[in-house]
Amino acid sequence: MAERLRFRGGGFVIQRKRHAGWIAGFVIIAAWQASSSLGWASPVFLPSPAGIAKALAGLALSGQLARDVSASLARILVGFSLGASAGLAFGLALGLVSHARAAGLPIVSALFPIPKIALLPLFILWFGIGEPSKWATIGLGVFFPMAIATYSGVDQVPRTLIRMAQSFDVPTAAIVCKVILPGALPGILAGIRISASIALILVVAAEMIAAEHGIGAFILSAGNLMRTEDLLAGVCVLSALGLTVGWAVSRAERRLLGWR
Amino acid sequence: MRLIAESIGHRFGRLEVLDGVSLDVAKGEILAVIGPSGCGKSTLLGILGGLLQPTEGAVSTEGAPPAGCLNPLTYVFQDFALLPWRSVAGNVAFALEHHALDAAERDERIAEVLATTGLAEFADVLPKQLSGGMRQRVGIARALAVKPAVLLLDEPLSSLDAQTRELLMEEFLALWLLHRTTAVYVTHNLDEALQLGDRVCVLSRRPGRIREIVTVDVPRSERDPSRLAPLRQRLWRLVQDEARAADRETMAPVHG
What we know:
Helices cover 76% and strands 0% of the residues of chain A. By secondary structure, chain A is mostly helical. Chain B is 36% helix and 23% strand. Chain B has helices spanning 41-48, 88-94, 103-116, 132-145, 162-179, 190-196, 225-248; strands at residues 2-12, 15-25, 30-34, 56-62, 73-76, 150-154, 182-186, 199-203, 210-215.
């Protein structure tokens, strides 16, 4: 007698569910709001989403939000640019020059694990309490992941492409610009993604230690004054900043790495 | 251009891959090189084009390259070696950009080779959008764009399926008949070697030595399977023992 074959190939395929993320977020916020409205959560220790939104609106209207965000962004911008460009150059050297790799890689491995915020007091002694000490902390934090990402990106460029370029007598500088840099770009962009979030962490930490303005300073002072609505409003701003950076890197990846 | 290799020997560390290989490729000749995998065919080709420094021996050329030649010794690679972020035309341009050509001349060369390889309508397409056969056509177009004096082909059809291989072989032969460029064609495929080569050099297993150089004394227009059968038989007998022995070898010394 013929027996119908049992299908056994199902499962293990992740499908795209478009609205699930929005629904989950809505459910969590609604439950949170409900527990606040019902009086289950203390407004001091866990303010309601509506309260946080109101605080956020107030901060935006008073201009304090713009002032703190721009102070933090300026620090990130300077520190990140310095650290990322130095890290890129150093990573290229690690990837391309045998001596640089032999000498540089152990140094990078030794210094990379240091939480860079631990060096802020030293940088304050060196550069003063002002902006340069924060730039240095962020820059150093960005430098190492950027150098490592660039170096491994360079390592991932297929040798055959370099040999091909050499077989056409392409000059070394042109090989670096036209073969190695574009080939390492996926790694470099991954490095930018990681180091941007590190920069965000470090700017907040540095501002909590020594700053008048900036999101970190704002969150710290709100906590000291038990203004938890303001505190969480600042946290929301940080989340938005992180999301924006991630989105921008994803866009850059789509534009620049369409060839993959 | 004539290409002469004198007693080439090469070792990677303690591993001897080539031993006393001497070749003389006449102007306008295709020399096919066959041998079992791991016999140093690709190493030999790397040495012939100056991409590898041989441990022993030397390579020289004789005669002037053709007019307009920008890169006398030019490779076609097994894995195509195309820049994935560049279009078809961009990949061909890559071989020309560092030469003192004005833009018009460069575009003209690109258009010409894309036309002869049947790629004209794919000029702006990225490699990832192309089939393997089309990718290798780009590799060939790029090689032709520099008007080479010697073509060094490293198993150019090995990563293609059988039908595509057949098609590209015909196309390559037609192109070759136009310019009659000196060529060294490395392959592990006896039929490719017999279809394309004026002579077939059979290498032994590692360390690669020349076992024999067989002249294909059938005119290219008459090379059908029945005419080539005796030669094929002879080549297969030369290769099969080597292939069997090479197959049973371990790639690296086993410890223990």
